[in-house]
Every structure is written in structure tokens, then in C-alpha cells.
Amino acid sequence: MADAAEVDLHRVGRSLLTSVSSIIAFPKDLKRNYKMLTEGAEELKALKYDILERRGHKKSPATREWMDKAEMISKEVNELEAKYKDEMEHPWRLVHFWEHSYLSKVMAKKHNQVKSLLEAGYDNRKVWMEELPEPVREMHAPKIKDNSSLHKVVEDVKIGIWGTLGTGKTTVMKNLNNHQDIAKMFDIVIWVTVSKEWSIKKLQDAIMQRLKMNMEGTVSIEENSQRISEELRGRKCLILLDEVYDSIDLHKVMGIDDNQESKVVLASRIRDICKDMEADELINVKPLSDHEAFDMFKEKLGQSIYSRQIERVAEQVVRECGGLPHLISNVAMIFRNKGEDISLWIDGLKHLQRWEDIEGMDHVIEFLSFKACYLYCALFPGEYDIDVDYLLECWKAEGFIPGTVAFRDARHQGHVILDDLINLSLLERSGKGKCVKMNRILRKMALQISLQSDGSKFLAKPCEGLQDFPDSKEWEDASRISLMNNQLCTLPKSLRCCNLSTLLLQRNNGLITIPLSFFDSMYNLRVLDLHGTDIRSLPPSISNSIDLRGLYLNSCTSFTGLPDTIRELKKLELLDIRGTKIQFRRIESLIRLKCLRIPLSSFSTGIKLGSISAFVSLEEFCVDDEVSVEEHYKDLKDVTKEVITLKKLTYLQFCFPSVDFLSLFVLNSPAWKNSSFSFQFSVGYRDSTYSHFLESSDYRSLNCLKLVNGEGTDSVIAKVLTVTDAFGLINHKGVSTLSDFGIQNMKNMLVCSVEGCNEISTIICGDGVVNSVLENLDILYIKNVPKLRSIWQGPVPERSLAQLTTLTLTKCPELKKIFSDGMIQQLSKLQHLRVEECHQIEEIIDSENQVFEVNALPRLKTLVLIDLPKLRSIWVDSLEWPSLQRIQIGMCYMLTRLPFNNTNATRLSHIEGQQSWWEALVWEDDAIKQRLQSLCILN
């Protein structure tokens, strides 16, 4: 670009030389000389700012002298420009021929001065730049999707990027380093790869070398820190720290607290390192989805996949990569040379399936104090949603959680271990409820480790479509076996499995019988899971499993009875028989149980006095009300009286026939008086229209109260509400608002569901209320409330609904207005809004009489609008929509405009709707339509 500019300057110079021979030519060339002068001045201005930005506030005397000259000439050019414009604006004035000539001549001379200064600037710029480090050192990195709001990443002081090895943390960091927006924001970007053998001195040396500081002589850490801080003073600096293995005190390294303009982004495999370094925001870089992984594989392959047969093998190849971008890239390079030969692809897949190691991770696992807990997760398929409560129960039964007897204590300690595994990126949270999952690659490595461990070999073949059980030798060598989610119909008749401690056979729904002698040698069995099978009974040999702690028979719909020998299982702590046909009398001998889950129908034949109270060790009792038969509820009256006597209860899931029985429990149960007691209570008969919303939410394990087909209010409801996290009001009569239950009783509420309540007209009545209301509410779910006219009536106190992230409104035919005056200002954390079948709504955000900033709803991510026939507007003006990612619109035919322009909603990536609706939209600018068209999924 500079060379081209010099060519233009030489051409201009030659043109001037040929024209000065005659003063008569100047009037004719006035416009041309003006154009050349102003263009040269603009180029000089750009060069000046380029040097200024690259050098920051530090300028040598030579640089300062050149800058002063450039500034002076710029002023002189401005004066000549003003004279020229004055002449051009008054063409009627009698201007002498020689005045025109003189102005043209002065411009030509001034242009020569500009040209000379430009040449000096270009000649010396390289020298000036070498005195200081370049602002950014470009790094080779695979391109990732450009994020137009990438600059937001560095708005906070410190950002922590964490995730398992190979997920692309370094790639994200390199793209951040290379991004043009970042180069504009900072005077200098400093990249440091922190080795395992790092030290403060090594880190300081790397930073000083990047800053081209004099490093001669031995200087103390404190002096180095002060020198670095002085060097960066007044300059905007971005520090990128990759592969951080340990917490780093950046103030000790570089005095970062004294440089407010300095920002830090660090990448680590360990989440707690980011926390220890006080990162303002944590970003978890997760493996790619199957779809994203396959797209990346095809891109890296660099050629077409020749046939559907090869494509199927390619899909398996990609699955073996576990969504790790680094591994996908390397594997694609290997498979690039296999061409169209299907046999080569299959052979490559087999080699990949035998690969088990991720460099560096085996060392981490080897020194885990809770290694057994991690390896246990490999019994489940890769990327499989493992229920956390179930996993912790298995860990407890196996003895992995030492020093605990009580279930509650074991769960607490188990969550600490689980958090450590997530912190080390060995497990990750699942998006589905309270679940975790293990990456496919990490699972393969865990299985390999188990095979190399004496007395801890796994036979893990879940979800492999097995119809026949594995060879007996494989059974007998294993300490833990998982054949879950297969198609087994039979099991071995005779085995020697003396070392077996866990056997997972769940969801083999073709499994009907278990051989009589199957459990003969399973003396050390601790966990047996048969849930979701079609077995009818257990063989008497189950009594040989004298060490059994956890037995899962739930959802065995054909299961009718247990053998009498079941009483021999003296160590059995947990029994789950929900969804079976077992009667309570069949388990009355198991009085040592600590956790019992049983269906409501088990009490259909009644219970005798003292049968439940005999379970003196019971800590967790769950009576599942899946069966919606009203006649079973009369049996609960006797059961309630029995449950009251259980003194060691720490958790109770129970359905009380009426509020009176709830009151009886609250007033008389010693467990209720324990501050650590938790519950899931349902009061009243539940019919088949119940939507199970609370059970499906992530809060199902918290204190939950559901009032079903009830009426009015009661003091005991108010008392229970004060310690309730999730509240469901279903088909309730006699109240017109939740406020009738006492606003002051809802401070702890996190989830609220209102369904089928025909008399409710508003959710909250704020009249006369001074303090904040529902300040901790996270989810509000409203469905089929025919008389609902508003969510909030009256004033909205500050901080009310301040934590609300999800709002769902369905089938509210009288609702015309969603956000009342003052309400929207409180919803700074709202992320998901869904409005469906509310036929009177005309505007989602009613702007009339409301005054708020354009940055309202700053965290809204998803907006779903379905079947709103009168909806005309989302909002009359445009918000910034800084977090909006996805919108779905269906059957909203009056909605003819979208509230988006070319600058807002920069993170929007998905618009779903109907083709006819999209084609009928009206646009202020075609450029907006073109921008959004690529985001559409239309049907």
C-alpha cells in the first residue's frame, strides 16, 4: 500500500514539474492541484495516526519533530482549503486571473512539502517501529467463526477460558490475538505460553522480551515488576496467558493492579485456577457437537466424501474423536490419503478405536485421590447423561466416599468430588437436568486404565446392541460390569464372579428371567441395577450377595414379588421399586433400609400399624404418585400417621391427601423440625392433566410444594412456603393472585408454576408493597390461566424479579400486556421468553407510558412467539438485543416487522418461522433483510 502511494506521489510530482513552465496553466489546474493537495494531506494524516497508535505515548525526538511538522502542514492545508472553498462558493465575484494563478501555485508548492514529509515518514517509520515492539504478533491458527462482538470478551479485567485438553482453548486464544477489533482496542497484545515449569522470573523474562526491554544484568523480581509496570503505564495492554497450570499472582509479576488499562485472558484446563486468579468471567470451552464435529472433519479433509458407504464410516471416525477439534484436525489429515477405498477407511477406524491416550491427561488421572470415582463413570456410554443422584448413590454403595454413614453427608461429599472432576475437565455438566457426562475420548482412556489395574477391570459394553451376553471369561475377570441399554434376553446360568461389585443391566427390555444360580458367586456385589427390564422376579440366589447395598428395580412393570431370601441382605441400604407391582408387605423385613422409593399403589392393600415406623434407619423415603387413581389416596391417611414417627428422615417425597394431613405432619414430625430436612410435597389428588413441569426442571431436588385441586389459603401452606424453593399451583380455587399466600413467604422461591387456576387474574399484586418481591425467582411458568390479565399489578419495588431468567406464558386468552409499567426495568437477567396461544396480545414489550434504556433485557437469549394472532409488534423501537441468539415465530401473521437493524442483535444466529410469514415482512432497508436471511430456518 505504501509503495503504491509512493508511485502516486512521484506521478503527481512529475505532473507538477511539467506544469510550472507557464503561469497560465495554473488557473486551469486549480481544481487538480486542490485535489492532489487534499489527498496528500489525508494520506499524511493517516500515516501520523498510524505511527501514533503503534507507538502509543512513547516518542523519540526524531519522531516528535516529524509529528510537529506534520501537524503544522495540516493546519496550513486547512487554511488553503478554506480559501479554495470560499472562491468556489462565490463564482459571481470578479476574481483576477492572477489571483487564481497564485492560489494554484501555492497549492502546488504545499503539495510538494506534503510529499517530502510523507517520504520522510515512510522512510523512517520502520526505524521508529523497531524501537518498540509490534502491537500484535500474528499467530498461525485455524480460523473459527468470526464473532462481531468479540471485543466484549475483554470488557472485564480478567477472563478465564477453561476446558479439557483438545477442545480448542488455544485456538480461541490465537484467534483473539489475531482479531482486527482487538488490534484496534489495544496498543499492544502480549502472548505468553506458560509452561509446567513456570516461575515468576521466567514469566517476567517472556514479557520483557516481548516489550523489547533491556534485560541485561540480574534484577530482582520486585524491580522487574516495577520496570514492566512503568513500561506499560498509559498504554492499553492485553495479556494472553495460555496453558496456565497454576495460579499466578500477576501483580507480583507485572504490577497489573497499577495499570487499569491492562486486561487479561487466561486459558487453563482447570476451572479453579481461573477462579483463583479472580477472573471476572469464566468461559467453558466444550467439545463440539456431533454435527459441528462432522462439518469440521469434512472441511479439514479437504475433499469430497465419495459415497454414502464411506460417509457412514466417516461419521463413526468423527464420533471416536469425542468432539475435540485438535484431534479431529489430526485425524482428518490422516484420512485424507485414504481416497475412495472403503477398506482403508474401515482399517483406519479400527486403529482409531484402539487409541486410548490423550497426552498429559493420564498423568493427571494417575494422581487423583478420587480416581475410582472418575473411572466408575466409564461404565456409562460416552456423552451419556448420567443422573447425579444415581451416580453418587453408586459411589456410596461402592465405598468410594469414605467416612460417611448418612446418605445426606455422602451426597454432600460426593458433590465435592464431582465438582473437582468437572474442575479438571474430566467430566462436564449436561444440559439435561441434574446430569453429568464424560467425553468419549476420556472414557476410552479410563477403560484402558481399568484394564491395567489389578482387581479393577471393567467389562463395559453399554448401548452396543448386544443380543447375546459376553463370554463367561470376560464376566469372571471383571470387577465392574455394564451391559446397560442393550438387547439381552438371557444371562449366563453359571458364573464365577467373586470380584464383581457393580452389575448394570438396566434397560435391556427383552430380559424376562434371571437364572436360578446366577448370583451364586457374587458375594461382593454392592450395586445391582435391573431397572427398565421385563423381569418378573429375582431368584433365591440373590441372598448370596450379602454385601449388596443398592438394588434398583424401578420401572420393571412386570415385577410382582421378591423371594423370601431377600431378608438375608442385611447390608442393603437402598431399594427402588417405583413402577413395579410389589406390595409393601413384601419388603417389610428390610427394616435396615436407609433409602426407600416405592409406588403409591404398593399401599393398595393397606398397611398394618407399625409397619413403616419399624424402618427406624430410614433417611430418605419416596412415595411416588405416578398412578393417578384417586382411590389410592385414602390409603395415604394411615401412611401419613406412620411417616410422622420416622425420626431419622432427612428427605421425604410424599403426597398428602389434603392440607389437614400436611398440617398433621408439620406439627408432629420430629424430622420437620430439623433445619437440614428437605422435601417434595404434593397436596391433593392429581389428575392426568398435570404437566409435570416442576419434575422436569433442574430444581426437582430442592424443596418443592405442589397444591393440586385445592381451595383457598391455610396457615400451614404459608409456613411451608417460607422454606419452599419450587412452588406449583395446579387447578387451585379461591385465590385471585399468588399474593393471597403472603408475599413475605416467597423470598426463597426459585421456581413457580401456575396451571389451570381459573380464578387468578394477576400473579403478583404490588399495591402497598414496599420491599422487593420474588427477588430470587429464577423460572416463572404460567399455563392455561383463562382469566389472567397481568403478571404484575401495581408498583414494582426495586429488585423484584431481579433473578428471573425464564418466563413462559401459554394459553392465557385474556392476557393483553406482559410487562407492566416498571417491570421490564427489573428483568436484567431474563434469558428466555416464550409466549404461546395468548390470543389478545398485540405487543410483546408495551412501550406506551414506559421509559427505559435501549439496553433493556440485556441478557435475553431466546424469544419464542407461537400462535399470537393479534401480535403486531415485538417493540415499536429497536433495543440493542446484545445477547439475543435465537428467535422462533409461528402463526403470528399480523407481525410484519422485526425490531432489528444493521447494528443491533449482533449475536443472533437462528431465526425460525414460516416461509409465508417471512415473505410478508416489511423492511426499512434491504440490507437488514439480507443480513437476517442467512440466519433463517423456514418451513
UniProtKB/TrEMBL annotation:
It comes from the Eukaryota. Gene3D superfamilies: Helical domain of apoptotic protease-activating factors, P-loop containing nucleotide triphosphate hydrolases, Ribonuclease Inhibitor, Winged helix-like DNA-binding domain superfamily/Winged helix DNA-binding domain. GO terms for molecular function: ADP binding; ATP binding. Residues 379-446 form the Disease resistance protein winged helix domain. Residues 780-910 form the Disease resistance protein At4g27190-like leucine-rich repeats domain. Pfam families: LRR_RPS2 (PF23247), NB-ARC (PF00931), WHD_DRP (PF23559). One of its GO terms (biological process) is defense response. PANTHER family: DISEASE RESISTANCE PROTEIN RPS2-LIKE, NB-ARC DOMAIN-CONTAINING PROTEIN-RELATED. This is Uncharacterized protein. The lineage of its organism: Eukaryota, Viridiplantae, Streptophyta, Embryophyta, Tracheophyta.
